[in-house]
Design goal:
The protein has 15 helices and 15 strands. The protein is an alpha/beta fold and 465 residues long. It folds into two domains: 139 residues, Aspartate Aminotransferase, domain 1, CATH 3.90.1150.10; 277 residues, Type I PLP-dependent aspartate aminotransferase-like (Major domain) (Aspartate Aminotransferase, domain 2), CATH 3.40.640.
């Protein structure tokens, strides 16, 4: 027995060392990583992860907003394996396709709102945003509007990590000075976060300000120059910001008024996160011109993104298009194995009525998390269904932030890890986006464990409960 334990420990140390020495992680913090390295995960089942030493964690992060149907499903593995045996790959370029790619494009068009009947596949959310940007440029040039190229997005937004997607995003923490960004034709308006807004007594007054600001930004740039507005229905990595009621309908109306394309970035919110296929129409009452999605499209089983756009856009770019080439795409656009995984994922969602669980348990999740508001450092609990955030403050009355060097979100998440719960720390926040199969009992575990973790952190920092 001792020999087996010794071998396991040595293997774990070896993997930890190899990772620390050779794997440069997304958003790696060089100072802390050089000392602490990574928590190595070895397997998963349903909503749970197991590290290399066998410790179990309830993954309330859902991977990264993505493990919607839960992990380890045999029928997903079977569908992927069968497609590999049938056809692993064929080039998607120009005039070759595969059965899964055609079927998935058709299925997505059926599920998408309005006339969004055309799909470009990519490898994830960032490349879906890149494809949307290139489509917008192509579309405006096809219309002869060669000056109409400027993009407006929001402060605090996150749209991906490629050069272009990160430039469109408005999270200051994701714009370290060592990177360069495209700035000449990308603009930002205010974050629709009422909790952090100053000078507004009501959400209605704040909403009026946001709409006036967007309109003035369009006019300042010149409506003849503004091509598109990029907006997440709920800002995700920016802190799970739910805009004031009516925000999307009014911004959408402004875009229509000034001939500005509306891009709904649903990389996080699509495929069930909020209890619907797409949040844009079903929850927020708009039909955008373009929707980007990824994550829940395959529930994280394989990398896949999609950019879905309207008949109206397609009619323009394909008009008299005999000599016109849309030179955009990727080697793995519509990869047959990834598309087969997405088709099976959608089938499971439909068959098991998973969205009803997301609604029922998601609403319960939000209600139970709000019980944490009695704690002295919990400033706000916000979100919608299975997309939630707890914001921590040093002073509840003034909403003063903790100093950055304290990193309160990380302190609490580290304590929660030790108790078998994974939450995502983002500065002063703990963000949660669990699988759509979450149960009420698991919600109770999350809330109870998070409360205990917050209290332990408060005690260590000298706060009274």
């Amino acid at each position: 027995m001792s020999t087996d334990n010794s071998n396991t420990t040595n293997f774990a140390k070896d993997i930890w060392h190899k990772d620390k020495e050779h794997f440069t992680h997304p958003w790696q913090m060089f100072d802390s990583f050089s000392e602490e390295g990574s928590l190595v995960m070895a397997r998963a089942e349903g909503s749970y992860l197991y590290d290399i030493e066998g410790k179990r964690y309830l993954d309330s992060v859902g991977g990264l907003w993505c493990t919607n149907i839960g992990q380890g499903r045999d029928e997903m593995a079977d569908a992927i394996a069968e497609q590999i045996r049938q056809l692993t790959y064929a080039s998607p370029f120009v005039d070759t396709t595969t059965i899964p790619a055609a079927q998935l494009a058709s299925k997505i068009s059926d599920l998408a709102p309005g006339s969004l009947n055309h799909v470009m596949f990519s490898c994830g959310g960032s490349t879906a945003i890149d494809s949307a940007y290139r489509l917008i440029q192509f579309y405006q040039n096809c219309r002869g509007l060669h000056q109409k190229k400027h993009i407006i997005a929001r402060d605090g937004s996150y749209h991906g990590s490629t050069y272009l997607a990160m430039s469109i995003g408005g999270k200051k923490a994701d714009h370290p000075p060592e990177f360069d960004y495209k700035r000449d034709d990308i603009h930002h308006v205010s974050n629709p976060n009422f909790y952090r807004a100053t000078g507004f007594d009501t959400q209605a007054a704040f909403l009026d300000f946001l709409i006036d600001e967007l309109e003035q930004k369009i006019l300042d740039i010149g409506a003849d120059k503004v091509a598109a507005f990029f907006a997440e229905p709920i800002l995700g990595a920016g802190g799970v910001i739910v805009p004031p009621e009516g925000y999307h309908q009014r911004t959408h109306a402004l875009c229509k008024k000034y001939d500005v394309l509306y891009v709904s970035d649903e990389v996080v919110t699509a495929f069930g996160r909020l209890g619907s296929w797409f949040a844009s129409e079903e929850i927020f009452g708009i039909v955008p011109d373009i929707i980007t999605c990824a994550k829940g499209l395959s529930s994280g089983y394989l990398p896949l993104g999609a950019t879905i756009y309207s008949d109206e856009i397609h009619g323009v770019i394909a008009e008299q298009g005999r000599d016109r080439c849309f030179a955009n795409g990727y080697t793995y656009s519509g990869h047959p194995v990834c598309c087969a995984a997405a088709l099976k994922n959608i089938e499971i969602m439909e068959r098991e009525n998973i969205f009803e669980n997301a609604k029922l348990v998601g609403d319960y999740f939000g209600e139970q998390l709000k019980t944490l508001l009695d704690l002295a450092i919990v400033g706000e609990v916000r979100g919608y269904r299975l997309m939630q955030c707890v914001e921590f403050v040093a002073n509840k009355e003034t909403r003063e932030d903790f100093p950055a060097n304290i990193d309160i979100g990380k302190i609490i998440s580290d304590i929660a890890d030790a108790k078998g719960l994974m939450v995502r720390p983002i500065g002063n926040l703990n963000v949660m986006s669990p699988p759509l199969i979450l149960t009420k009992d698991e919600v109770d575990f999350i809330v109870t464990t998070l409360r205990a973790s917050i209290l332990e952190a408060m005690d260590s920092l000298g706060y009274n409960a």
